[in-house]
Amino acid sequence: MAAREEIEKRGASWPDDLTSEAMQRASFGWHLFPNLIILPCIDGSLCYRTRPDPENPDECLWDNWCFGRFAPGEEPKPSRTIVDDWREFLPLNRFLKDDLLSLPEVQRGMHSRGFRGLRTNPVQKVCVSNLYRVLHEYLEDESSTPLSATNKERLT
Q1: Which phi and psi angles does 85 have, rounded to 5°?
Q2: Of 67, 32, 29, 27, which is closest to residue 50 (Cα–Cα)?
Q3: Domain, as residue range, for 26
């Protein structure tokens, strides 16, 4: 695997059991109840957490952590960047550019008279759909099937 060779060439370690097959089985996006997303990558991971803004229901607080593999002694010091406007984040993370640029239009659409609720792509975003299904079940929303006692114990 070229990625492993490149990382080891830089002096960083690679777990022996981290094979292409293991990474494929692990998938590329883990949504953890209630609001954490982990995106495992070949050379580390990206983690996101969203929280409601207590002052504005149209906004959220968003935490982003980036982890990577480094050679011993080459690890960068942890740093923290705080931005007040999502546009300030664009040059810091090109990976999210398309998602961030769509935010104003999505928010505007959610306030239109025709908005009846969110729907996700049933193929590409099945993990997001499943997260919302579990949230509704966990909260015992009247529009969803209540969780069985076994599932409630597993989630709490």
Answers
A1: -130, 135
A2: 32
A3: 2-116
CA distance 88 to 31: 25
* Residue 136 to residue 88: CA distance in whole angstroms: 33
Which are the contacts of 152, defined by CB distance < 8 A and separation ≥ 6? 138
3-state secondary structure of 31: strand
**For residue 73, which amino acid is it?**
G
Per-residue pLDDT of the chain (156 residues; tens, 9 = 90+): 687 888 888 888 888 787 778 777 777 788 887 889 998 877 888 899 999 999 998 888 989 998 988 999 999 999 999 998 888 988 887 878 888 899 889 889 989 999 988 778 888 778 778 877 888 888 875 554 444 444 444 444
Residue 85 shares a structural domain with residue 14: yes
Number of Cβ within 10 Å of residue 47's Cβ equals 17
125 & 70 share domain: no
The whole-angstrom separation of Cα 10 and Cα 6 is: 6
List Cβ neighbours of 121 (8 Å cut-off, separation of 6 or more): none
Q: Is the pTM of this model over 0.70?
A: no
